[in-house]
Design brief:
Elements lengths: L18 H13 L5 E4 L10 E4 L27
Antiparallel strand pairs: 1-2
């Protein structure tokens, strides 16, 4: 099956420039319940060497698809004096 290529001009101001935010976004699209992207190699962690492809098998019964975001890991430190 041949995939349709979509080309669109990109506004540099709208790109994700934070590496951690980009990794969370890719993880949400490839590793969550609704997998819009396929990730190679498979796994939950996103590395710079990973390859992402559109998941042609993705299907959802709703016309609008809601993708949950992976939350950032936050470490909490407490100091008592």
């Amino acid at each position: 099956m041949k995939h349709k290529v979509i080309r669109q001009s990109v506004n540099p101001d709208k790109l994700i420039t934070d590496d951690e935010e980009l990794k969370r976004t890719l993880q949400s699209l490839a590793c969550a319940k609704k997998r819009v992207l396929k990730k190679l190699p498979q796994g939950r962690e996103v590395n710079n060497s990973d390859v992402f492809r559109f998941n042609a098998d993705f299907d959802d019964p709703h016309p609008k698809v809601h993708i949950n975001s992976i939350q950032a890991k936050v470490s909490v430190s407490c100091h008592f004096y």
